[in-house]
Every structure is written in C-alpha cells, then in structure tokens.
Amino acid sequence: MLSGEDAYDLDDPQHMGPMSGLPHERFLLGEKLPAAPVLLLGQTNQAFDPDQSIACLQPVHLHATRDHLILMAQSQVDLTSEESANLLKVALPLIEEDFQHPLLFQGSREWFISAGPFASLATHSVDQSHGRNIDWWMPHDTHEVGLAKRWRKIQNEIQMLWHVDPTNEAREARGLPKINSIWLSGIGKLNAVEAPQVLKQSAVIYGGHPLLAGLAKHLGIPHQLTVDLSAMENAFAWLEDPAQLWPELLKALDTKALQEVEIIDFKKGAARRRVFTAKDLSTSAWAFWQKPKVLTWADISQS
Predict the structure, then answer these.
(1) Quick check: helix, strand or coil at residue 114?
(2) What average pLDDT does range 125-129 have in this prediction?
(3) Which whole-number Å values give the CA distances from 17 to 12, 76, 120, in the listed order?
(4) CB atoms near residue 253 (< 10 Å)
(5) pLDDT over threshold 70, residue 283
(6) What confidence tens digit (pLDDT) does each residue in 147-174 have?
(7) Residue 25 — φ and ψ, nearest 5°?
(8) How far is CA 168 from the centre of its chain?
(9) What is the mean pLDDT of the chain?
C-alpha cells in the first residue's frame, strides 16, 4: 500500500472544505476515522473500553505568516520525550478539567484521553493538516454547536501557559521552533474501526507507521517494522520506500515464491487496487532479438 495525498485543492474557489482523513487513513480505519484508540492500542498494553471515545492530543508548532497560521509537521519539530513530558505537566490540570476525565496514556509525542464532552467534534490528523492554513483544519462542530469554540478556548489557554514555559525558552535558545499549540485529532471508538478485508486476511503486517501497530494488535495479526523476505506470502506492507522492496518482489514472482502482488494506491483520493503477476510485469519487445522490458517501480507507481 502507498500513502495517499488529499484529492482536494484548497485553492479551488469551488472547494467547500476538506474531507476528514487522508485516503489511506479512511481505507485502513473506515469512514469514522477512529485513529486515536488505534494509536493508543499500538503504544500500550493498557486496557481501555473499546466503546469509549478516545481523543489524541499532540504538542505542535504553528508557524505565523502575514495573515494566517500554518501547522508544522511533527517530524520538523524535533521534540524530545522529556520536553513532551514537561509540557504535559504544565497543561495536564487544564486538560483533565475540561475533558472531565484523567489522562489515559502519555506517549512521547501523543497523549490520549477520553474525549468526554468533545466526542462529536470532527477533526483532521497532523499528517493531513501540516503545511496548511489551520483555519481549514481546526476541529469543527457536527451535532452540538459550540464545542469547537470551547476547544479553541482550551487551546488558547494552553498556548499562553507554554509561551512562558522554560522548556520553550530552552528550545528557542537552541534555535528550535517553540511548541506553541496543541492539536486535537483522531476522536473515535476502537469498536468503530472498519478495517478492509485485505488487512483482516493478512498473515503478517509490515511497516513502521504508528497506525499499523494498533491495527495489528486489534486484529490479532503479527506486526513487524521491516519486511521479512522469507515471509512475504499473504503479507500486507505499507513502507516508506517501497522502491527498495520492488526488486525482491520481482524476484519472488519470477521464482514463483509469490503468485501475485497487489498494489493499493489512491489516485485522485480513491482507492485503486491492481494485481500483478510475473507475466504482467514484463513487456514483450517488438523485435524478437531485444530483451523484454521489466517494469520498474517508477513505471508502476506513476501509471
């Protein structure tokens, strides 16, 4: 599986607003996008109610431009576990008071809590929202009017607390971006996960994305960060650089170790599933004395 980009162009004047979830998030989790409980499950063995709405909170940096704020990707922030813990300590009393629940789990970059009164908010992940004007991507009301405004009030209060925090002063002295806001996303129930059949039927799940660890545990399927080349049959892989694996897949198809390979991508935002056999991956040459051309990863991924 390849990651999918948004099919929506926010510069299009006909565009009425972003769809919740990146294409691969909707494919793996279902339309309700309960990412928070899946991420929580992947990070801890701590038991929690699968019918409880869970929210994910993340310390982030908002970059100010002339007329709006842009969310910076977490990979650009370089936040340490110690810094995350220090910032949480400052904000925790306010968070638990407003969410009306104690914190469930403190991860290195994500914190999890029962969504409480904010359970009906529609949100977007940092992966989907980063690099963009946050006006489009902030949580918004669905059933109950006023919850998004209430969240923004909490967000502003935490921003003020962190503005003068020693952790941020130390980061600024080192030339690092301040952690100047908190992001809410992934609200949902574990029992609301609607994983695709291709994932449910897999013998093993490969890949380092945090969603995979939780999904594998939820489905009772073994999970590994890297691909075991001796155990590729009936495996599901979502890798950062699939081009590296492509020669091994070609070899496995050529030697009949694999009968076929299915590639899932998200052209124009919709899931596209293509099955390839060894025969499909070799193009016949027009001149009999020329060798057939074997399709490269670039040929497959860009078609």
Answers:
(1) strand
(2) 92
(3) 10, 26, 18
(4) 20
(5) no
(6) 999 999 999 999 999 999 999 999 999 9
(7) -65, -45
(8) 26
(9) 90
Assess contact for 41 and 217: CB atoms under 8 A.
yes
| Bridge partners of residue 177, in order along the sequence | none
Under 8 Å between Cβ of 263 and 2: yes
Please name the helix (run of DSSP H) or strand (run of DSSP E) that holds residue 243, with its range, or none: helix 242-254
For 159-191, the three-class secondary structure string (H helix, E strand, C coil) is: HHHHHCCHHHHHHHHCCCCCCCEEEEEEEECHH
Strand pairing category for 54-60 and 111-114: antiparallel
Whether 126 has a pLDDT exceeding 90, the answer reads yes
Task: Count CB neighbours of 30 within 10 A.
Answer: 16
Tokens of 184: 């809410």
Nearest by Cα to 113 from 30, 186, 162: 186
Report residue 284's pLDDT band, with 50, 70 and 90 as the boundaries. low
- 1 close to 237: Cβ distance less than 8 angstroms: yes
Rounded Cα gap, residues 217 and 222, in angstroms: 8
pLDDT one-digit tens code per residue, 207-238: 999 999 999 999 999 999 999 999 999 999 99
**Cα–Cα distance, 134 to 50 (Å, whole number):** 30
Q: 135, exposed or middle or buried, with CB in 10 Å at 0-12, 13-18, 19+? A: exposed
pLDDT digit string, tens, across residues 109-122: 999 999 999 999 99
Q: Give the separation between CA 226 and CA 230, rounded to whole angstroms.
A: 12
